[in-house]
Amino acid sequence: MNELQQLGNGFIIFMAILIIWTIPWKGVALWKSARNNHKWWFIAMLLVNSLAILEIIYIFGFSKNKEVAKK
Predict the structure, then answer these.
(1) Does 9 fall in a domain?
(2) How confident is the model at residue 69 (pLDDT cuts 50, 70, 90)?
């Protein structure tokens, strides 16, 4: 039973690390997509949990600053 409890504790720690990693990336990406009026990106990132991979791709690849794009 002790081994099972250790496995459960390890899983909880692993999930906590994943949550701490994902939430800031998702927050920044959703904020940028809303400001840039990228509705489909916003919906995709809101519904798909990709452990922040989709969010990182959006932030560094597709979210251009509006002022930079106007120049």
Answers:
(1) no
(2) low
